[in-house]
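tool_call predict_complex ligand=calcium ion
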Amino acid sequence: MTRACVLCGGVGAARFLTGLVRVISPEDIGCIVNTGDDIDVWGARVCPDVDIVTYTLAGIVDRDKGWGVAGDTFTCLETMARLGEMNWFRLGDADLALSLVRTRLLGIGRELEDATAELVHRLGIAVTIVPMSNERVETHVTTPTGEMSFEEYFVREGCRPEMRKVRYAGADIARPSRGAERLLRESEVLLIAPSNPLASIGPILAVPGMRELVERFDGPRIAVSPLIGGRTVKGPADRMLRAVGFTPSVEGLATFYDGLIDGFVIDEVDSSSAPELEGRGLAVHALPSLMDTPARAEAVARGALELAKEVGRP
Ligand code: GDP
Ligand code: CA
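tool_result ok
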């Protein structure tokens, strides 16, 4: 039995978790999920990454898109569009229902982690899912036309504008959620999912106290690369890394995670980088990392846990 804690964004993390639940029992998995791209839609609090992870583990995610609920309808969205309300964020009706429950719970004074636990429980998920923080932290991106939230950049602008800067607004006064702190103190293995380092893992690490908890984690810490041959499977991670001065490569990622990881799972196409990474003191495992089927995701999860065993870490 291994108790694992996973730092998570959305789609990349969810794919990895699909594999991880096939290797260790769901009760032994805890996810600390990014909330830097949370957004209010028609008065409802939407937590895109928490929801992707939740829907995936509940087995109701729209597999083709990787987010949203399978078979969802968009009646509310269509009506909002007709009423001249915001309609660039494609929130489905089932998705909205979940967000409304969360919003109601927050409205009666529950903290985000308690509202999240309640939803996870109601959906029958055995994995622990906690937001990184109960306070609001927002990933903001600076483009030539000004600063915008990550979802505005990602969804409304389709990642088209040039990105110049990334910042985590509100991070200075946030704290790790109680659940996040507990997972980082009590788990035996720390895994960093193959998520966008700047849009998903960066906000988690920006919460004051979180980086120290990762640095002092009492066990092996393994990251899985979201880059394959220097490119993202999907999304702007490579461009974002470049915008803030990191090369979009496994070497660049190792620099980004410097001091936070002991081992690195990279794709087999990047295996020529292994000696350089090992030279920096990292244990490396190169394997086919495209998780387009549950079986392939399982192999990646197994690889990460094997590497954790190898590293041990005093
Ligand atoms: P988002 O919050 O939904 O954008 O998702 P994440 O931040 O969790 O994940 C985005 C990252 O996941 C991208 O950089 C992708 O390259 C990476 N990713 C998605 N699918 C895979 C996969 O099958 N294998 C690997 N190695 N990375 C993946
Ligand atoms: Ca996200």
